[in-house]
Amino acid sequence: MPLHDSRFRSRPSRGGAHPVRVSLEFFPPKTPAMEETLWAAIKRLEPLRPAFVSVTYGAGGSTRERTHATVRRIVEETALRPAAHLTCVSATKAEVDDVIRAYAQAGVNHIVALRGDPAGGIGARYEPHPEGYASTPDLIAGIRRIGDFEVSVSAYPEKHPESADLDVDIAVLRQKVEAGATRAITQFFFDNDVYFRYLDKVRAAGIDIPIVPGILPVQNFRQTAAFAARTGASVPAWLARRFDGLDEDAETRRLIAAAVAAEQVFDLVDRGVTDIHFYTMNRADLVYAVCHLLGLRPQADEARVAAA
Ligand code: FAD
Predict the structure, then answer these.
(1) Environment class of residue 165 by beta-carbon count within 10 Å: exposed (0-12), middle (13-18) or buried (19+)?
(2) Which of 154, 173, 231 to mutate to test the pocket of ligand 1 (most atoms within 8 A of CB)?
(3) Residue spans per domain, the chain
(4) SS3 helix, strand, coil % of the chain, rounded to 5?
């Protein structure tokens, strides 16, 4: 085991050092079966009262209707506060503005503003739509012109795949803050030292909005590794070793995944983090278990927990 591995330097945590706020990310379902899975997850996690739940926007705006329908259903059928992701790819300003106005009318006051991946896919050159928002800061300014929205944005502790270096990314983050972003949510990462080094650089650059760590519980190691390769997130060798030989053993994989996510989150909390964003992949069980370990309880059980 490498000595520099931060997870083994930290003392074993029991959590509960300070209250932790969680937020949850879902993606809009493609089929009725996926819709059922999503809603089972939302209903299971709702009583934990996350700070907000966000719903992603498909590449190139491909889920425009489904994202909107999911967000609207969250407003109508739950007590959750939804945040709608929105990108500028392949759309005119007028089209994007219509989406923003529709959210305002539906009572949604939080948007996760993103540029989005190039229409040609990750790795292709990004070309703004000639009549569209050219960049994320431009989109944020548009959102602010339309309504009084809370605006969250992305942040990349291991730099964005298109970026020459982290300094460029941090300069872009600063532009997003200057345009009105009030929170950044990071790309997922597995080595907490990467996050804290990034946080130091961001603070040194004078950016003071919350940089909320995005945590991806490993539902499926192979898929996670493939996804990480596309997004520029590194997968430490120790993580691969933990799932080694478990391809045919879903039950053990799930237990390991909960242990790995809990360990990562406890280390973050021990080191001062107060807000955690979970990439749920529309599955409740791992996230629910980690939230439970963090001390979150269904609202109805609060009195019992306080008395214990
Ligand atoms: P930005 O942060 O605006 O820019 C990304 C990078 O491009 C910069 O870091 C920089 O390297 C370069 N760049 C941008 N502007 C300039 C400039 N003026 N000069 C030089 N370099 C520049 N994608 C979706 O399609 N739908 C989603 O719902 C979605 N949700 C996401 C949520 C989170 C929390 C994260 C981290 C990512 C999400 N993504 C989503 C992925 C995101 O769309 C892609 O990573 C996309 O390639 C960049 O969008 P962005 O808003 O992160 O870009």
Answers:
(1) exposed
(2) 154
(3) 5-11+18-307
(4) 45, 15, 40
Q: What is the pLDDT of residues 94-103, one digit of tens each?
A: 999 999 999 9
Q: CB within 8 A of 87, min separation 6: which ones?
A: 57, 59, 60, 61, 114, 115, 116
Q: DSSP string covering 170-224, please?
A: HHHHHHHHHHT--EEEEPP-S-HHHHHHHHHHHHHTT--S-EEPEE---S-HHHH
Compute the distance between CA of residue 100 and CA of residue 123 in angstroms, rounded to an integer. Answer: 28
171 in ligand 1 pocket by Cβ < 6 Å?
no
pTM of the complete model: 0.93
pLDDT per residue over 156-170, tens digit each? Answer: 999 999 899 999 999
Distance from residue 35's CA to the centre of ligand 1 (Å): 27
Q: How confident is the model at residue 19 (pLDDT cuts 50, 70, 90)?
A: confident
Non-local (6+) Cβ contacts of 138 within 8 A are 88, 179
Ligand 1 atom at minimal distance to the Cα of residue 136: 3
The Cα–Cα gap between 194 and 190 comes to 8
Largest CA distance in the chain: 60
pLDDT at 8 over 60: no
Q: Is 236 helix (H, G, I), strand (E, B) or coil?
A: coil
Fold of 5-11+18-307: TIM Barrel (3.20.20)
Q: Outline where DSSP puts E strands in the chain.
A: 21-26, 52-55, 82-87, 110-114, 150-155, 183-186, 211-212, 214-215, 275-279
- 162 CA from centroid of ligand 1 (Å): 9
Q: Is 278 in the pocket of ligand 1 (CB under 6 A)?
A: no
What positions carry a catalytic annotation?
Answer: 25
